[in-house]
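Lecture 7 notes: from sequence to structure.
We start with the chain below.
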Amino acid sequence: MEAENFDKTLRTFQSRVPYRPFTVILTTGDQFEVDHAGAFVYRDGVGIYVAPGGTPVIFDHQGVSHFVGDLKSQKSSTEP
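Predicted structure tokens for the same chain:
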């Protein structure tokens, strides 16, 4: 995944109101759900998610296969 697309997608997920969890699918097949907007940060194609219990998960644009979350309904709800 391109770093710019990675950052743009995470920015969109983080700014949804109300916040809705989304899933990160890694190229290894591992996955995790980002359950809180304040639980992750990203910059220049690298993200850090602090999972419940304080466990950090570091992921980058090269290791992410895709994200699972409903962005289409957000776009259609904001379009005239």
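Points to note: The first strand starts at residue 22 and ends at 26. The CA atoms of residues 1 and 25 lie 12 Å apart.
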